[in-house]
């Protein structure tokens, strides 16, 4: 089974488990992974992403706690429901940007100036 399209950037300041969790939630809420879809095993997804199995396990556990995934002995991990509070893609991108800006030591004003500069440039 191939892994869903997930990309983890360990340099961006957002915890890798959170990146996996948020991307899975977006894939599920967007219908790319519909209810009933079987996900790769923790070990397989971890190997595909170059992460520790515990990192992927935490992402799966978070989604299980929310009722989005279920794990059964014979069926593996399956999409059980749509996320009740699917992350807004713009809000998720903003959260990631803020985390990176903070890790770079940028102030709020500097971060906002950088965003404004890109809006003006395009």
TrEMBL record:
Keywords, ordered alphabetically? DNA-binding, Transcription, Transcription regulation
Q: Which residues form a coiled coil?
A: none
- Listed SMART domains: HTH_GNTR (SM00345)
Q: Which domain of life is it from?
A: Bacteria
Species name? Lentzea roselyniae
Q: According to its UniProt record, what is one Pfam family this protein matches? A: GntR
* PROSITE patterns found in the cross-reference section: HTH_GNTR
Residue ranges annotated for the HTH gntR-type domain, each copy included: 14-82
The record's annotation in InterPro entries points to: Tscrpt_reg_HTH_GntR, WH-like_DNA-bd_sf, WH_DNA-bd_sf
Give the protein name, as stated in the record: GntR family transcriptional regulator
């Amino acid at each position: 089974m191939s892994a869903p399209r997930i990309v983890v950037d360990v340099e961006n300041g957002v915890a890798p488990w959170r990146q996996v969790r948020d991307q899975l939630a977006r894939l599920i809420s967007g219908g790319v992974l519909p209810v009933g879809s079987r996900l790769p095993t923790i070990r397989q997804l971890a190997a595909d992403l170059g992460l520790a199995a515990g990192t992927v396990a935490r992402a799966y556990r978070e989604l299980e706690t929310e009722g989005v995934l279920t794990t059964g002995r014979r069926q593996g991990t399956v999409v059980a429901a749509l996320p009740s509070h699917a992350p807004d893609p713009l809000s998720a991108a903003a959260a990631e940007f803020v985390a990176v800006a903070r890790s770079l030591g940028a102030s709020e004003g500097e971060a906002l100036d950088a965003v404004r500069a890109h809006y003006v440039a395009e």
